[in-house]
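Appendix B, Record 12. Input sequence as logged:
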Amino acid sequence: MAKSALLKSSLAKKYWMALTGLFLCLFLAGHLAGNLQLIFGDALQFNQYALFMTSNPAVKLLSYLTYFSILFHAFDGFLLTYQNVKARPIGYAKNNASANSGFSSRNMAILGTLILIFIVTHMVNFWAKMHFDKKMPIYATTVEVMGQKQDLYVTTSGSYIPVMQVAKDAKEAEEMGAQIYIDHGKDFYNAQAKIKVGEGYKDLHKITFAFFQHPKYGLIATILYVLAMGVLAFHLLHGFQSAFQSLGVNNKFTPAIKTFGKLFAVIVPILFAIIPLYIHFVK
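Logged structural output:
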């Protein structure tokens, strides 16, 4: 009975909202560190990071926790908003909301909904392609051999396989007499022995650059991404310090928490926004 009441109470919802929100802030920081390789790293480094993030067991576990936190945070937010509206069905005769609260705190539900829409579209454009798109390219690099340029696939073991020697599948390998073919989207197989001889990197770097540099919708995608980061900034401005307040943190560190929260809410979205701007306008 007590447990049921705890789970259904507004206080419990605020605790869960705070905990999942702070966990997602940690995710944002880690995700930003990885994505900044699009600016400060090369294609191989970013694709190595992408492979690590999708294959390491501990990271995969954290990914599932992140998905759950996003859904729970959104659902919990909708419940709290509904409870607040239900508790006050008729507005005050005189209401000066801007004098009593900031823009972010008054519009957390709207901001959160916009962020959820962004997350869904973001995952469709990148996460889904990385995991399910059979046309996902495999990373290859160009080297100069005896004065001639040659395209080579780079395997996860550090070896190289000439692109010209690789068929897209077993059927094509049989038709063209190729010694190696690709299976499961990124694995290299010997055509005669039918055994795996290497593993390539899915080229998420290429997909990301192609998305923001697309001749038709690249600029629109870049602008929408930047606007989404503006929405995230407003959401974090209230959400970060509100999370600690919900958890009952009210001590000598409170001013420092508020200052760090404001810096986090501004710096993280700005750095995220710089990435597509750099890809579209600089590269």
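The radius of gyration is 24 Å.
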